[in-house]
Write a structure and sequence with these properties.
By secondary structure, the protein is an alpha+beta fold. The protein contains three helices and three strands.
Length: 84
Amino acid sequence: MFYKVICRYGHVGCRKDVSVARYIRMNYPATIIDVMDLTSDMPGVKNKGVQSVKRINQVEYEEGKLKEADNLYLKNLKSIYNVS
């Protein structure tokens, strides 16, 4: 099961937040609530920072992962948190 999740990063209260699409793969018994819980615990995602969750197919997931790898905000975030 594949999901596209829109997350908010940055200074949300100062209106300097950034919305970034994240692409998540979960095992079958997972629900949208499980996806939201997983995503909200990711480094940099703000409190109540999950804006939307949408189920997608594998092709959209693979294309999204390529876009995610080229996202400058996520590259910077990964270097700060030393996440692979």
